[in-house]
Design goal:
The chain has 151 residues and is mostly beta strands. Helix content is 0%, strand content 55%. It contains no helices and 12 strands. It has strands at residues 14-20, 23-31, 36-44, 47-48, 52-53, 61-69, 73-83, 86-99, 109-110, 122-125, 132-138, 144-150. Strands 1, 2, 3, 4 and 5 form a 5-stranded antiparallel beta sheet that branches. The chain has a 4-stranded antiparallel beta sheet with strand order 6-7-8-9, with no helix packed on it. The chain is globular.
């Protein structure tokens, strides 16, 4: 039972980004039987490889965005505090990064403070410098947008 959320997942739910002539990077939200989690998998020659879970166990998380650049690597963003499509408290944006050519992602990093973050964060990478960025908005008495470089 998933406690009233149904199986709806907040936008985007899944992202696929090309990473070469015959490869892509895939990130998506799954339900593990207790919590919504964020996973990433590579797709090569039409075959999806084994997924890697990026969000922590025991915490509900939904995919925010995915960015890739050959120079920079792969950046995956997600929001905690959201169970499928339902806010369960304050949301917080987290990021995990895999350097270009590396097999493993670095440990997850909190990108901003917890708050009311009702929309999916956006990820971007500069293809010339490899620098990664995250941008997202808080709902406060006055709307606040946060953007910062990562990794």
């Amino acid at each position: 039972d998933i406690g009233g959320t149904g199986r709806y997942v907040a936008y985007p739910g899944v992202r696929l980004v090309g990473s070469g002539s015959d490869s892509s990077v895939l990130a998506f939200t799954v339900y593990d039987g207790k919590n919504f989690r964020v996973q990433q998998a590579n797709a090569v020659a039409g075959t999806v490889q084994a997924p890697v879970t990026l969000s922590p166990e025991g915490v509900d998380a939904v995919l925010g965005d995915l960015a890739y650049s050959r120079l920079g690597g792969t950046l995956v963003l997600w929001r905690t505090g959201t169970r499928g499509n339902d806010a369960t408290g304050a949301q917080q944006v987290f990021a995990s990064f895999r350097k270009g050519g590396a097999a493993d992602f670095l440990p997850a990093e909190a990108v901003g403070a917890a708050g009311n973050i009702p929309w999916a964060p956006s990820a971007s990478e500069n293809p010339k410098t490899g620098e990664s960025f995250a941008a997202f908005g808080y709902i406060t008495p006055e709307a606040l947008i946060s953007a910062r470089p990562l990794f």
